[in-house]
Every structure is written in C-alpha cells, then in structure tokens.
Amino acid sequence: MSTQTSPTDNATSEAGSGNILRLGLPKGSLQESTFDLLDKAGYGFSVRSRSYFPSIDDDELTAMLVRAQEMGKYVQDGVFDAGITGLDWIAETGADVHVVADLVYSKASMRPVRWVLAVPEDSDIHSVKDLEGKRIATEVVGLTQRWLESHGVTADVEFSWGATEVKAPDLVDAIVEVTETGNSLRANKLRIVEVLLSSNTQLVANHDAWANPWKREKIENLALLLEGAIRAEGKVGLKLNVRRDGLKEVVETLPALRNPTISPLFSDEWVAVETIIEEKQVRRLIPELKRLGAEGIIEYPLNKMIP
Questions:
Q1: Model confidence pLDDT, tens digit, residues 157-174
Q2: Cα three-residue angle 265-266-268, rounded to 5 degrees
Q3: How many Å apart are CA 95 and CA 98, to the nearest integer?
Q4: Nearest residue to 229 via CA among 145, 148, 170, 306
Q5: pTM, whole model, 2 decimals?
Q6: Residue 290: is its pLDDT beyond 80?
Q7: How many CB atoms sit inside 10 A of residue 76's CB?
Q8: Any bridge partners for residue 36, and if so which?
Q9: Dihedral sign (CA 228, 26, 211, 5)
Q10: Model confidence pLDDT, tens digit, residues 16-35
C-alpha cells in the first residue's frame, strides 16, 4: 500500500457508506506487542517494514501507524476515530479524548509502566523538595513541570531526545524516565526517588466518533475482544476424564477461577471435567491429576476470555 495516502483517503475510497473506522496504532516500542494482542483478539493485521498502513482482514477498518506520543492529538482532531496509546501521553499532551478501555500491557510485560524521578546512586537528592534549582532531563516535559508545580518546586526541565539514563550526573542532576522493571536504571547506577505516574495502554476514541452509533459499537467490540485477549494471557484450558468416585479429590486439587464444568460421559462411572488455570501451574497439576486417576488429559491454549 502506498505510504502517500492518508487514513482518511483510504476510508473515502473504500466505502461510500462511511462505515469505516479509522484506527491509529502505536509505532515503536509498543508496535509488536500491540499486533500480538490484536491477533489474539481476532484482528489479522500485517504491515510491510517501511509502510505505515497495515492491511487488515476487516473491510470496516483502516489503520495507520503513528508514534504513541502523537496519538492523542490525532484522535482528538478526528484524524482517527480511535487509537491505542498510553495514559502517560494523553496526560502529557492534554488531549481531549474519550477513554474507552484500559489495556494493561506494555512492550515487555502485561503490567503498567511507571514514570519515575531517578538520580545517581550517590546523589544528595532524596525527595522532590531537593530538586529546587536543579536540572532535569525527560521526554515528558509538561508532565514533569506540572508535577513540580504541584509540590511548589522550581527546576529547569529540558526535553531529552533519547538515552536519558546516561545524562545524569554529567549533563543533568536528575531524570524523569519510564520504566517497567527498573533494570535499565540500575544498570546505569541510578536509583528511583519518586513515582510521578503509573501508566498503562489505553484505547481512546474521538468524541464525535463515540457519539456515532455505528462507530461506537465497532469501537466497543474492539475493546471487548482486546480485553478478552489480555484476560486470557498466561492461562490455558484443561480437560480430563475421571471416575465419579474420585471426582471430589480431583476438583479439590484444581485451582479453578470458578467451579469447574462437570459433564456426564456415556459410562455412568465417568465424568468429564473442564477448567481454566494459570499456565505456570500445568507442570505441577498434570502429574498430580494423573496420580489421582485422571485420564485423557488435554491442555489447550486460550486466545480470549470474555466474562
């Protein structure tokens, strides 16, 4: 697909009825994990290495890749009907959008990220009050300035174009940086002083699009399936057969989310048991279930869990 067209042009050419949802997807660190999640949710996106316009197996969707930092503004302005970005970038830009769903996943894990104030291990900065008159480097200048103002602190906050961790102490006194695990900060001999914001990925919508019944339903369907895919992460289904006289012991062994499903088999002496468990529990459970007399044990992957 040509990179010279816009998502609006694509929508106009593909459907005169207007039943096209224009979706913004994050390019960069969140791109791979977002496509993985969309695939589990049932949306088959594919994108060429130099294209910003993924193809999709849904004629009612058109998409474009943009930086998460810019997503809120484009959704606010109606370039996209909906988009996936971080709560942090919505807060940084002050974009006026409708938050449809919190999607708790990131580039390396299924948990929120944190924007933290970090300083060299031997720094004499131990609280926000110690930042008075200091120099701070960060990508989230607005967020940091508002945080300092809320604590009555005046400091010089400068935009960092990257490699922020290496700038303290030679170039700045402190940094405000995003982290999932803290490993990169520790590797650069930095310690966390305070957390400014805990952030997760969000599905956001343009207010006009959200007021449109067809688009709202399309966005809500997308949110439902994405949340179902996140809910299923790290879980598997388990099926097994067991004699009725051993059922109680087997059920007590299963760490089910709710009571397992019990179904009769052709033979009155046997029943089928089905449940959902954490995948990490499988290596312990299957041998134990086998010792309790279970047979025909089947483990299967899950793509979505819809409550």
A1: 999 998 899 999 999 999
A2: 75
A3: 9
A4: 306
A5: 0.81
A6: yes
A7: 20
A8: none
A9: negative
A10: 446 999 999 999 888 899 99
Please give the full DSSP string across 120-160, using - where no structure is assigned: ETT-S--SGGGGTT-EEEES-HHHHHHHHHHTT---EEEE-
C-alpha span between 105 and 199 (Å, rounded): 10
Contacts of 257 (CB under 8 A, 6+ apart): 275, 276, 277
Sequence-distant (≥ 6) Cβ neighbours of residue 155 within 8 angstroms: 131, 132, 133, 134, 135, 136, 148
Q: How far is CA 84 from CA 62, 73, 156, 188, 223, in A?
A: 14, 12, 31, 31, 10
Please list, in sequence order, all residues whose beta carbon lies within 8 angstroms of the beta carbon of residue 130, skipping any fewer than 6 positions away. 124
How many CA atoms lie within 13 Å of 94's alpha carbon, on the beta-carbon side? 4
At 16 the pLDDT is 40
pLDDT of res. 28: 86
CB–CB of 234/278 below 8 Å? yes
Name the maximum alpha-carbon separation found in the chain.
80
- For 220-235, the pLDDT digits (tens) are 999 999 999 999 999 9
Edge-to-edge order in the sheet of strand 235-243 = 261-264, 270-278, 235-243, 295-301
